Amino acid sequence: MKPELKVLVVEDEASTRQEMAALLEDMPEVAEVLVADNGATAVRLLGTTTIDAAFLDILMPGLDGMDVARVLSVLSEPPSIVFVTASEAHAVEAFGIGAVDYLLKPIRPERLAEAVGRIAQLRSPGGAAPPAEDLHVVQIDTGRRTVFVKRDDVQFVEAQGDYVRLHTADGGHLIRLSLSYLEEVWASAGFVRVHRGYLIAIPWVRDLRVTSSSGLVAGTPAGDVPVSRRHGRHLRAQLMEAARHDQLGRAANAQGAAARPRDGEPDQQPRQSP
């Protein structure tokens, strides 16, 4: 593969900056690596050259990684953003900005390579992300066993650091993907962003209601999902459209019907003795 990516590493710790630059330079997808030791230097550098991807440390003096990401987001052709940090605390905000990935320190070479591979695929000619059908079934390796989760069984998705948690009727399943990536590849299956840290599957929504503790929430059989003010109007429009096509709550209703005994059949649920 001919190297094509021009990447920028913004990191105030010299050892980490040098390590990341060396790892990136050895990757076949990377043509050039630029470095900056603070956010201000990175912004000045972006005024003189274009880059394909930026690896941003979040916690830096002065302009931090989030500040630099916001500057990048207003460019006519913004680069792909990968945040690099020692804490999971900023994951929700990071993916809300549109990060491609979120790497935790110390950096593992295989995770860095995974992020670069994703960027190369996204930025290849006509390549954006793979179509939604490519993730019709998600394979999750837990070390001792492999779990296969159908996309249509996922009721909502929650960002959790380097991972997302897929919430189904059987519980949560943790997988290393970004929320923004799933938002793109699962859009055609009815998944919409309702909060910077959540996606919800429209067919699983049972209701919208306001709570005293969480504000507006969307109810699903797997649990309530917070809906931000920013995304509330869009979600209501999506729900109205689904209702017009008789798709609203269809998955939830089907699950409820499957759980109920048919006419003439005994209820199989165990009953407690009086």
Question: Brief description of this entry?
Answer:
With 274 residues, this protein is α/β, with parallel strands linked by helices.
Features:
single chain, 274 residues, alpha/beta, 5-stranded parallel β-sheet, 5-stranded antiparallel β-sheet, 8 helices, 31% helix, disordered C terminus
Folded structure, characterized:
The chain has 274 residues and is of the alpha/beta class. It is built from eight helices and 15 strands. Strands 2-1-3-4-5 form a five-stranded parallel beta sheet, sandwiched between helices. Strands 10-9-8-12-11 form a five-stranded antiparallel beta sheet. A three-stranded antiparallel beta sheet has the order 13-14-15, with no helix packed on it.
Major sheet attributes: 5 strands, parallel
Strand order of the largest sheet: 2-1-3-4-5
Percent range for β-strand residues? 25-35%
What general outline do the C-alpha atoms trace?
elongated
Distance between the termini: 71 Å
Share of helical residues: 25-40%
Uncertain residue ranges = 127-133, 259-274
Question: Strand tally, please?
Answer: 15
Q: How are helices and strands ordered from N to C?
A: EHEHEHEHEHEEEEEHEEEEEHH
Number of helices: 8
Mean pLDDT: 83
Rg calc: 22 Å
Estimated structural class: alpha/beta
